Structures are given as structure tokens and as C-alpha cells.
Amino acid sequence: MLFAASCALLTVGFAAGLGIASLAGLQEGGPTVKGCPPGDLTASAAAPAVSMAASAATLSAASSGSGAPLGLPPPEASSSPSVAAGWGEPHTLSLASAPRDVVFTEDGARAVVLGDDGALTILAVDAPAQRQTVALQGHPRRLRLVGPHHLLALDAEGALPLVDLRTLGVTLLDAGGPVSEGVMLGQGRMLLVASAQARRIRRFIGTGDAGEASGWRAAGDLLLPRAPLRLGVLPGNPELVLVLAPGGSPADPGTLEILDPRIEPLGVSRLAFSLVLDPAALLLSSPGIPASPGAGPVSGSTESLVLDRGGAQLLRVTPATVAITPLGAAPRGGVVGAARLRGGHLVVLDAAGEALVLAEAGGASLARIPLGRAPAAAATTPEGEALFIVLAGGPDTSDAEIAILAGDPPALAARLRAGRAMGTTRVAAAAHRLAISSAAERSVTIIDRR
Length: 450
Description:
- The protein is 3% helix and 41% strand.
- By secondary structure, it is mainly beta.
- A hairpin with a 2-residue loop joins strand 1 and strand 2.
- The longest helix has 11 residues, at 53-63.
């Protein structure tokens, strides 16, 4: 029923070989939907898989090798100073409950901490005695900033808490199941949320204004045959939404879908690529895209990147194509996280305690940077100049550390002491400061640039 409601289903085949897939071809299919002219979102089956420009145009119309390691000092030597040059002393703030997640507001003036008691603690970083608490329903587990003014409390039981950071008002939205992902578009007036449990994407419409007058209302559902695990925004005009829905096995491929959320009904204007996706596939955000929704990318890029196949390949997604770049190095211990930095570089964090630096354009391996410990969490600055990696402490260590990767190509720039960040940790980065939460210590540590 889902695909019968689509204008077309474009299938990209993959041939497996040594763990690396390649584009094989397209098949045209799917019936025409009333209100969506024939030819929209379709491409000729005789056309090469890499040539889908006509499909991109009709989508818009319907919307109207291993490198040498860096010469770095060993971790013991580089981590000896308590304060690295350019950074101040860490300040640790005690919390009433164990933190599950932490984010900064857009200006970096406030840190928002989610506790295991289900409440938000809002800290004024320059006046830490000034704290505000916001109770949330459903015991959410993660935070997601969607634009400069709104925060989603994900994985909550029951309704989804949507927090307006201007007023700290909470709106409860019925998404048809626990919400695992969300994105905001249209100058903060449209919210799409995904429930993996319900296999559903639900659209909400609001005014974008502060206060209860925003009047968020449900405005359409899209039911999927597989669980939507990731949502992302494909930048451009119009903004399009990426949906990653992995399959159960190579014999049961998943889908990567591109949809225009403005078109009625939701999902009628979309492309669906059949892909063998890992359940842990990561969407990599573009550095330099401002937090303000609808403002458009600084660089003018209209592509997104997906890291897949255990960190062995990169999927480059545009409104017309999905191209695959095999990477020159794969993690030895499994992917912990990944970041897309300015200058055209990717950093893949290996559970074995390494950071792999790769060229975004061709996937060449530039360096393997030893971190000394397995990374526990990571965050980039808003503009993608640096990556901050938490190397959590434990019973045999007094302090956690932050490894900072920066430069062109990225290299280990500094290591910071970060207090006893043990157990579950999270890190958030603003332009001029870091916040590291520690569940075991019931604290959050702030480190500022000097």
C-alpha cells in the first residue's frame, strides 16, 4: 500500500564483492498517483544508474588506501598537562540526578541536561547558580536539537515532549509510538518525527512562534514496511527529507528514501532506493550549515553522506542519485561514531581506540590517530572546525580526557582533562565551550576557550 501511494520506486541494485557494493542499475516501477503527473520522480530504465538529473528536476517541479600514521607523541606524554594551551580549567557542576544527555542552546550560553529522573536542568553556564528545571513525561532517554529554538526529548514512553527553548514550554505530541528521530524544516514551521516501533513518520505543522500560539497539529502519516531508524535533511531549496530504513539481511534490503514533506499527501512525492543498509548506518551532517532552519547551507551543498557497511563505504546522496565511495580504511573494532569536518575530511571513530582520517571526496585513508583509550562520545563545533572525543575514565584512571582533532587534514591538536567522567558520558560543543556529562558522577563539566 505504501509503494502504491508513491509516484515511483527507483531501485538501485548492489553487487557484493569483498564487502564493497557497487551500483548496478535502476528499475522503473510503481503506478501513477492522482495529482502526480506521469514521469514525475521516474527515470528511464535504459539510463545509466549514475544519471538521474531528469528525476531530480521533476522532483523539484512536483514540489512547487591506508596512509602513514601521524607523528604524534604517545598518549601518556600528550595528556600530562592538566590544561592545554587555549583552554581554561574545567568546572564541574553537581546535578540532582544522573545525566543521560546534554546539549547547548544555539548561543552556547545555556547547557540543557536530561536526567534519569526524566527532568531537564537548564544551566546558565556563566552563572551556574541560576538553574531551571522542566519536568518531562515518559522518561525520555536522548535529546535532539531541531533548529535554534526547539528540543525533542526522544525515546519517551507515550507522547513526545517538544520543548520551546525560548519559553521552556512543553508541548506533548502524539506521534503514534515512541519517537526515535526528528527533523524540523520550513523556518521552524514543520516537524517530522519517526517512530521505529510503529514504523511510522508523522508530520506536524506549527507557526514557528513562541508560546502556546504555535498550535502544533498533526498533518499526515507515512507508514513504512521497515522501521525508520534515521531522519535527516537534504539541504537545498526545497529542503528534502532523508529516511534510512535498514532491512533484516542482505537478502532483505532496506530503503533510503528522499521525500518532499510539503506535498500532500505526505510521501506522495518521493524517491525510494533499495539498499543493503547496516542497522548502524550513520547520517553525517554537513559542516557550515547554520542551525537556523530554512536558512540554507553556507556552502551551497545539496548532498548528504551516509556511512555504511561497518565503516567501509560512503553513500553520497543527492536529490537524483546515490553514489558509493569505498573507503581506504575500515575500523578494526567497529564504528563508535563519525564526523564530517570542514576541508573535506571525515573522521571515523574506532572502538579499538583510533580515529581514522579519510578524504571525503575519494575515500582515501590519510591517517590513523591513536587515542590511547576507546572513545565514549564525540561532538563537533557548529561550523565543523574541530572534533572533541571523550575518552572516559574508569576505576583505574582519575580523569577522563578530551582528545581534540583539528586542522587540515585533522590531527591531534590537544588533550584536555575533563574530571571523573565515568559510566555513560555525553559531550556537547558550542563555538567556544564544551560540556561533558558523567552519569556515574552525577555531574556536568564545562571547559571554555580562553
